[in-house]
């Protein structure tokens, strides 16, 4: 490109830096970045995000912050992806206080928060950190970010796994009060929780609500789980009623 007399621009440099970082050639990526600065090509948020990404994935928070500080020194404005990377790094380190500071900075700058908060809840979900997820959820509500179905499902699943039945039901009530529509995954959490406890009546209630009121098609595993808990409880009539409801809706074929 250079031999042809074509001058690289910010897009060219950012693309090369991204390719080098993705291939683990961090030193070469920084060399290209240094060249970019030397020739007077001004980097943008995409350039810096490309350098940050590899450090975020590797859990190198210090390196992420070094890139961010360099970004500030060059007066390059951060974007949503930049803030997301920083918050994710802090969250992985369990540094909630600094993560919240970044959130507050974003609020002041009017940056859209929902996708960032959602992605960091997912970090806690993967790490099974119920308390941290709950704190982030509280922060979402404080910042007037309305939780969606996915948010509630993640939290309900975490609390169900930690045997916190009261919290699962509290979240379900919040969903209902805020008119957040449940989906198949919402009901899977509730039904699985009650089946594991042997509470056939509640499992049956939520299964009926799912197929009758919400017109949702349950997965085969959930269906079989409820049938099993009904058989174990000796609720043969309920068992047959449930099969009839599923057959009538075309969700299953009648067993031979």
From TrEMBL:
The keyword Cell cycle does not apply. PPR repeats lie at residues 9-43, 44-78, 79-113, 148-182, 183-217. InterPro entries: PPR_rpt, TPR-like_helical_dom_sf. Keywords: Repeat. PROSITE patterns: PPR. NCBIfam families: PPR. This is Pentacotripeptide-repeat region of PRORP domain-containing protein. It comes from Rhododendron williamsianum.
């Amino acid at each position: 490109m250079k031999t042809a007399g074509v001058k690289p621009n910010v897009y060219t440099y950012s693309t090369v830096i991204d390719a080098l970082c993705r291939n683990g050639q961090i030193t070469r990526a920084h060399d290209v970045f240094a060249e970019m600065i030397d020739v007077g090509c001004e980097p943008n948020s995409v350039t810096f995000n490309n350098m940050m990404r590899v450090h975020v994935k590797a859990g190198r928070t210090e390196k992420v912050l070094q890139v961010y500080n360099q970004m500030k020194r060059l007066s390059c404005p951060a974007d949503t992806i930049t803030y997301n990377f920083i918050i994710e790094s802090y969250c992985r380190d369990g540094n909630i206080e600094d993560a919240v500071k970044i959130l507050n900075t974003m609020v002041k700058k009017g940056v859209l928060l929902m996708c960032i908060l959602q992605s960091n809840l997912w970090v806690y979900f993967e790490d099974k950190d119920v308390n941290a997820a709950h704190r982030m959820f509280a922060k979402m509500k404080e910042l007037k970010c309305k939780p969606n179905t996915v948010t509630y499902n993640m939290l309900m699943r975490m609390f169900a796994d930690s045997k916190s039945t009261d919290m699962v039901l509290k979240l379900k009530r919040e969903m209902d009060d805020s008119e957040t529509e449940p989906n198949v995954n919402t009901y899977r959490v509730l039904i699985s929780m009650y089946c594991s406890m042997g509470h056939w009546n509640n499992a049956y209630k939520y299964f009926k609500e799912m197929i009758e009121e919400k017109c949702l098609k349950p997965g085969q595993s959930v269906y079989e789980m409820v049938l099993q808990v009904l058989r174990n409880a000796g609720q043969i009539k309920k068992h047959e009623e449930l099969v009839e409801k599923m057959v009538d809706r075309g969700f299953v074929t009648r067993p031979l």
